[in-house]
Design a protein that fits this description.
By secondary structure, the protein is α+β, with helices and mostly antiparallel strands. The protein has helices spanning about 25-30, 40-50, 55-60, and strands at about 80-95, 95-105, 110-125, 125-130.
Length: about 140
């Protein structure tokens, strides 16, 4: 699936859950559970962690085909992800859900926040990121 993530199995997961990377998002990045997050929040957290680890193939694979870009540009030099806060995760239907979150990062010595409500759908039993929803 994706390239092998670079982390020791006991390293804390960047997504903020109280688990090691291997027991949390790492299992969705590689191995038998690759690409098989069980719910929208887990998929969103695994995608955040993929941004932290620059796992662009995973990001593309977990993006719904209707919205998936042809490629993802490499991260800007000096980009450092600082943390993730999930504000709300909910199912909006049997095979649809949204996740509201704030991702913090630093670049060029300045801190920034990415606030988004993301839409997810499940097709053939697999959750995929669709896109950010328009702000109200």
């Amino acid at each position: 699936m994706s390239r092998t993530p670079s982390s020791a199995p006991d390293d804390a997961c960047p997504c903020g859950r109280p688990a090691s990377y291997a027991q949390c998002c790492g299992r969705y990045h590689a191995g038998p559970q690759a690409g098989q997050a069980p719910d929208p929040e887990s998929l969103m957290r695994s995608r955040y962690t993929a941004f932290v680890k620059d796992l662009r193939p995973y990001l593309l694979e977990t993006w719904h085909a209707s919205e998936r870009p042809a490629a993802i540009e490499p991260p800007e030099p000096g980009l450092k992800w600082l943390g993730l806060t999930v504000r709300e995760a909910r199912l909006t239907g049997e095979d649809e859900g949204t996740v509201s979150f704030v991702a913090r990062y630093k670049i060029g010595g300045r801190a920034h926040r990415l606030e988004e409500v993301s839409r997810f759908v499940r097709e053939d039993g697999v959750w995929r990121y669709v896109r950010a929803l328009d702000a109200p």
